[in-house]
Each structure stands twice: as C-alpha cells, then as structure tokens.
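Quick note —
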Amino acid sequence: MEQQIRKLLSAISHPETQQDIVSSGVVEQITAREDKITVVLCFPKARDPFAVRIRNLVEKTLQDAYPSAEGNITVVVKEGTPRAPQPKRESTTVKVGKIIAIASGKGGVGKSTVTANLALTLRNMGYRVGVLDADIYGPSQHKMFGREDYLPDAVQENGMDYIVPAQSMDIELMSIGFFINPDDALMWRGAMATSALKQLLHQTMWGGLDFLLIDMPPGTGDIHLTMISEIKMDGAVIVSTPQQVAVADVVRGVEMFRHEQVAVPVLGVVENMAWFTPKELPDNRYYIFGRGGAKEYAEKAGVPFLGEIPLIQAIMEGGECGTPTVETDPEVERYYRAVAEKMIAQL
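Predicted structure written out below.
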C-alpha cells in the first residue's frame, strides 16, 4: 500500500523546483494501513510558500484514492533538509542461477543434513553452490560445514555494504549462526527474525552461483512467507521420513508451495532415513520408521519422487564433526546424486 501511495504522490510537483515531491525527498515518511494513512512532508527551507498548497493537494489525493480512510488521513509538515531517497539496493541473488528451497513439514526429518550433502553433491557434479541457512531459530549449517568460528566481514561496493559469506569445501555459506552466541537463546519476535533474514538474503556477496540452496525452517510460517515474497524461487524440495505422521506434515508443505498465490514449483519429495542396513549385514534392510510413506504420497499427489536416503550412521557423524559425509564417502554420495539428477531434470 505504501508503494501505491508513493506512486500517487509522485504525480505532485513542487511549483518552484518543478520536481515531484517523492523523488526530491519532500515525502519523508509514509505509514499506511487500509483505515489510516500518515504522510510526513519535509520542506528544505523554512516557511516554504507552497507548503500549505502541497499539503492540501496530498490530502485530497489520498482522500480521493482511499475513501475508506476518510477522517483518518494525517499529513504532517516539517521544515528542514529533506532526505533524498536512498539508492535502491539490488539483491545479490540476481547473480544466482537457480534458487531452491529445501523444506520439511516438521522438524527432525534430517532436512539440514540433506541440504548440506545435496550441496556437496551438486559441487561434485561441477556446479557452483551456496547454502543459506534460513532456519533462524535453529541454525545448523555453520556447524555441519565446520565453520562455527567464522566472523563475517563487511565490504563496501558502490556505496553499499555487503556481507562476505564463509567458504567451506568450495561451498559459499551464510547463516544467522555466525552472528549469535551458540550458548544464547535466540528470543526474537517474528519481525526481527524476518528482517535479519532479508539482510542475509539480499546483502550476502553470492559469487555467481549456479545453485543457492535455502535450508528452510520446518513448518509453514512467517519465514516461509517472507522468503517467498522476497525472491523468485525456482523450486522446492520437500524432505520427509517414511512414517505417516511425517508424511501428513509433508502435505501441508507441498500445498503451501502449490498455492496459487505462491506458485513455487515442487521439484519433488525426498524420503530420508528410508531404511537401515548394518555394516555387518549389507544385504539386509530394516524399515525402522515404516516403509515408503513419502513415496506413496508423492505418487498420489502427482509430485515427483526424487529418491530415498537410507539411515546411515556415517551421515549423522559427518554433520556432527563438520564434514558432511558426501565429502568423504562415495557410497553415500550415490544416493544424493540420484536425488540431485532428478531434481535438475525437473528444473
């Protein structure tokens, strides 16, 4: 709504300067909701002879455009130096080829582990890859990639500040975990969390990536809506485990991305922890969490099934020690490569 008001007021010019009041900085602030609008005008010189005229014109323009706010339109006039509009910051994501959300309907399904290993698999396939940890309240990628000690630098370019991502195993990495004490609870309201995430998304110096994988928080909340509204995502991958309670949450995740106002393509579902095979019994498969629930749902819902990742102790240990297992174990990598190839085919 504020953008619409700004556009309306840009049609009003100052008679003396012949400049519109928006681009010249006379419109200092706009606060708006459907039933109340406040506009602050700041004129560069004291007792500007046109101030009252412009104020009345602004008020009439807003009353005509928003009749439901009649009686609740306030136009404040200040004297002083108007603020020139800040140059529009171009998001650094414009340098990224494909942006993929890795999501899950519930926590505890191994979404972050899948994200880290999938990133390394894509790197092994010759792509330039970055990971953004958007799980604001439970960041883990900085630990999985062994960069808990990283303190991000800030650099200036064309008068703008940018954040330098961590580098680990040829992966560019950004996480809120770099900015908080690991022993502190992150007690942020939703607005604070989404504001921090926007900054990490738009101001990180992503270096011409082929893929940016976004490790989303579990569920379908504020962070998801923020990410969807801030950037154009090329697709979403949903991670689940086989049991029915996890698959029930997958339905909500898939439908969120499929919603007509969201319209992010669901590239497919990954069934994580699909079975367990002991090293001493390599031909045996134990379906600890049930069998094929995510695959069955994908077939019913018309969503691509990208593959199964078995429950392997080395995968858990790799995330704990700061080296995802794909980096060290070709046997593990083959499962993630099958997923990556199908994902790329969907793109």
